[in-house]
Design a protein that fits this description.
heterotrimer, A mainly alpha (298), B alpha/beta (262), C mainly alpha (313), A: mainly alpha, two-stranded antiparallel sheet, 2 strands, C: 313 residues, mainly alpha, 12 helices, 4 strands, 69% helix, globular
Chain lengths: 298, 262, 313
């Protein structure tokens, strides 16, 4: 049982970066009712762009601490360019189509972006690990953890709190929640749903890219990272309840801890432990942990 | 007359909201009963409990002296209780004829079918009879989702009748239908049912219709039955006038609220 | 009233395929075989979609069928095509029977995700099972059919011909099923489950039944794939990308006819082969763009190109 603290901390670390990705996905689904398969590609784009920008920044001899800001900028740039381009240029024409068709559209987009990323950044792995190694390690009891990972946890908590505040305390947040609740009614009361969609998708894209940019220093960025991430993100979002921010957090923690437990105690099941969790949660709570209540139909 | 349907001390609450309180009613076979009450009074809740969509918090529902409380809609339908809906529940992408074929097909295969399994040809005949009785011939090949509202209502009721019910519950059969069409619709429905020997309960807001077609009226208010009897008596009942029908229909414009008069 | 041309068309197509087979070059035989086994899987999906459910996990049964077929040859030296297909169908149907009790309670995106989850669980299990070759999988070969030994030159044609016959039988069967009471009931369920329950029929039972049928078809498809390709592995069968392809072909084909899945599968395979050959670095992008074009401009699926009266499905 001496592994338990390690399991828990590893789980939290894993959950933190998955949360940043999952929360964007659940936000997009909650508002637009679209399960964005391309979210994984946006993550990958964020990772590539972040690494490239940071690599350039560092190679020019600028202050290493600035590379964090650069990563952030990279994520914002990807979000601001890709988000509106995708939403206005493609998704906008598909609203009103069946939910499944929309998933296929984002799947097609995912395929396109996978190759697009390869064209833009090449197929060789990129590793810009300085932002990661810069902060060194920290001792927690008998365990050693890179400070960067802990910073990542702080960032994800910040993101969660910021989103929660925006959704619950600001006017924009109220408008967003109204659209999540009932699109038609929102239009009827004069909300510019079209603009809400644009903003939501852009923010979601930025979050995905942020997840990628922040993870990039810890791993070698190569083709295929988007595909790995997207299914995990789906699992988390479904487990937590589609459209629920709190659900994304709880889902990420659950998935993170289960995966961490698997890695430590039974590595053979690591790969599908997440899906077992998803299956178990859906069996016990058919619509996820924090799903919206059912409305009477007849 | 035999009692075919009975509600005993039915209660239904959703948390703090009481949708039905102490409902007691004995419905006689072959009678036609009207359920009246303002919106939210508990009429649809009553129908939902009888047909199994909702389970009562307490109390019993007996059908032909058999306890059917809490049974799912599927089984209750198979026993012979069918219903139509406030908002017509149809198969919108299927044509009118196909809707009825599905309905008749299911009824033919349900275990209750005392007339035994019907062959394909007999089922087609039944569908034709329904189309004729409910005047749906002109809409036979149209998708149910594209029909005018009044026709959708008729189809919804026809679907309920396709189930060969002994008890038929109609939830606001004439709502959404234009005023001049209401009587025609009710004439058609009642005419289609007359030969069948069916007990009918229907929810209605139009007092003219209720008084014309029913033997008996149950008046609901805030989840309770406040009056139960023949139309003449119930419609003149003081409480019914106050809470359901409305008292001062010719009130002068200067009067402030309905409560002030009392 | 116009006579339904489906069955005569089907029969004609079968005769043509069987007759032409021996004269077709190898690549053409392969191509048609692929279109046939993919089409069989998608045929099953079309049945499920009639009830309004889209499975993102047919890969599970496709994989089970493929591995069942492969196991017969690789581990038991039973290299019989008929046996392989039967095994594929039975294993898939059995698993679907069990999982169906659970899955028939779910709808929409939750059904999709749960079916996906089970497929990925199998994927994970296979990747970690070294006896079955992990990510590499293993190879197999077909040597007999119903006990009759197949000379080497005729193996390919036999698999091709059997695939065609099976495809024809299944298509005819599904066609009749869809025009029966249960078929109509499936469409009714998609439109309004509540009404179906209120008419006295069990929605769950119908969904469960259709789920098992679709799974069996996917199992047969997987077995035929294993026989055709001669190799099974987790990546091309149980991974979510494979299930995604099935969904795409299903939507691409549209619901206009039971023949549509084969047309859709053929075109998909053609585009993919074309893209892989001429755009090896951007074949995914090519596929994705094609998907978008079809979704945008042919909302009724490929079958709508023929302008045939779209059945109210």
């Amino acid at each position: 049982m001496s592994q338990l603290p390690a399991v828990i901390i590893d789980g939290i670390l894993y959950a933190s970066w998955m949360f940043i990705i999952a929360v964007g996905l659940t936000l997009i689904y909650g508002v637009m009712k679209i399960l964005n398969v391309a979210h994984g590609s946006l993550y990958a784009l964020g990772a590539y762009t972040g690494s490239t920008f940071a690599g350039y920044w560092l190679s020019q001899g600028h202050a290493p601490l600035g590379s964090y800001g650069v990563l952030l900028v990279a994520a914002i740039v990807v979000g601001l360019i890709a988000g509106p381009l995708i939403e206005r240029g493609l998704l906008r024409f598909m609203y009103g189509r069946d939910e499944v068709v929309l998933v296929l559209v984002t799947y097609a987009l995912f395929l396109i972006l996978e190759d697009f990323t390869k064209l833009l950044f090449g197929v060789d792995p990129i590793l810009v690990s300085q932002p990661y190694s810069l902060l060194g390690n920290m001792e927690m009891g008998s365990l050693i953890y890179p400070v960067y990972s802990l910073v990542l946890v702080a960032v994800s908590v910040l993101v969660g709190v910021a989103l929660a505040l925006v959704l619950n305390r600001t006017r924009q947040g109220k408008i967003l929640r109204a659209v999540i609740h009932d699109r038609e009614m929102s239009t009827a009361v004069g909300i510019n749903v079209s603009r809400v969609y644009l903003v939501t998708f852009t923010v979601g894209a930025m979050l995905a890219a942020l997840g990628g940019a922040l993870t990039a220093p810890t791993t070698s960025v190569q083709p295929g990272i988007g595909a790995e991430v997207i299914v995990l993100a789906f699992a988390i979002v479904v487990v937590g309840g589609l459209g629920s921010l709190g659900g994304a957090a709880v889902g990420a923690l659950l998935v993170g801890l289960v995966r961490s437990g698997a890695v430590h105690y039974r590595p053979e099941v690591e790969l599908f432990s997440v899906y077992v969790v998803m299956a178990v949660v859906l069996i016990v709570r058919p619509k996820g942990l924090f799903a919206a209540p059912e409305v009477r139909k007849i | 007359m035999a009692c075919i349907l009975e509600a005993r001390n039915l209660n239904k609450s959703f948390g703090a909201v009481t949708a039905a309180a102490d409902i007691n009613a004995r419905i006689e076979q072959d009678s036609i009963v009207g359920l009246i009450g303002s919106n939210g009074a508990g009429k649809t809740t009553f129908i939902n409990m009888v047909t199994g969509y909702l389970t009562p918090t307490s109390g019993q529902i007996l059908y032909q002296d058999r306890d059917i409380t809490g049974m799912p809609p599927r089984e209750i339908t198979r026993l012979g209780i069918c219903r139509s809906f406030q908002i017509p529940q149809l198969f919108n992408t299927l044509a009118v004829g196909e809707n009825l074929m599905v309905g008749v097909g299911i009824a033919a295969r349900s275990s209750r079918a005392a007339h035994g399994q019907e062959r394909g040809a007999e089922q087609s005949t039944l569908v034709e009879q329904l189309i004729e009785r409910f005047n749906l011939g002109g809409y036979r090949t149209q998708a149910a989702g594209l029909l005018p509202e009044g026709v959708r209502k008729l189809l919804d009721i026809a679907m309920a009748v396709a189930g060969r019910p002994r008890v038929l519950l109609l939830d606001e059969p004439t709502s959404g239908v234009s005023a001049d069409e209401k009587f025609r619709l009710m004439d058609m429905v009642m005419g289609a049912l007359k030969t069948a020997g069916v007990t009918v309960l229907f929810v209605e807001h139009d007092m003219d219709i209720v008084s014309r077609y029913t033997h008996r009226i149950l008046a609901f208010y805030e989840g309770r039955i406040i009056a139960d009897g023949d139309p003449q008596t119930v419609l003149r009942d003081a409480e019914v006038r106050r809470y359901v029908i409305g008292e001062q229909i010719h009130a002068p414009a200067t009067k402030e609220t309905a409560g002030a008069a009392d | 009233m116009q006579r339904d041309p489906t069955l005569p068309l089907l029969f004609a197509a079968l005769v043509v395929l069987l007759a032409l087979g021996p004269f077709l070059p190898q690549w053409a035989l392969s191509f048609v075989s692929v279109a046939l086994y993919l089409g069989i899987v998608v045929l099953g999906m079309a049945l499920m979609m009639r009830t309004g459910l889209v499975s993102f996990g047919q890969g599970l049964y496709y994989c089970l069928g493929a591995y069942a077929a492969g196991t017969l040859d690789h581990f038991y030296k039973l290299s019989d095509l008929l046996l392989m297909v039967i095994a594929g169908a039975l294993v898939a149907a059995l698993v679907a029977l069990i999982l169906g009790f659970l899955l028939s309670k779910y709808r929409d995106i939750f059904f999709a995700m749960l079916s996906l989850a089970f497929s990925m669980i199998l994927y994970g299990l296979l990747v970690k099972t070294s006896e079955l070759g992990s990510t590499d999988g293993f190879g197999l070969s077909v040597k007999t059919f119903a006990g009759i030994p197949l000379t080497h030159g005729w193996v390919r044609y036999s698999i091709y011909a059997f695939s065609a016959v099976l495809a024809a039988i299944f298509t005819a069967g599904i066609h009749r099923y869809l025009n029966s009471h249960l078929g109509r009931l499936a469409g009714a369920i998609r439109d309004n489950e509540l009404r179906v329950e209120y008419m006295g029929a069990s929605v769950r039972r119908v969904i469960h039944l259709n789920y098992v049928i679709a799974a069996a078809l996917a199992g047969v498809g997987g077995a035929l794939m294993a026989a055709t390709i001669g190799h099974v592995d987790p990546e091309t069968t149980a991974n979510w990308t494979t299930s995604g392809e099935f969904v795409f072909i299903a939507i691409l084909s549209g619901t206009g006819s039971v023949l549509a899945p084969f047309l859709g599968a053929g075109i998909f395979e053609a585009v993919r082969t074309f893209a892989l050959q001429y755009f090896p670095n951007t074949w995914q992008m090519t596929l994705g763009i094609t998907m978008l074009l079809v979704i945008m401009f042919l909302p009724g699926g490929l079958w709508s190109v023929f302008g045939l009266r779209r059945r109210s499905t």
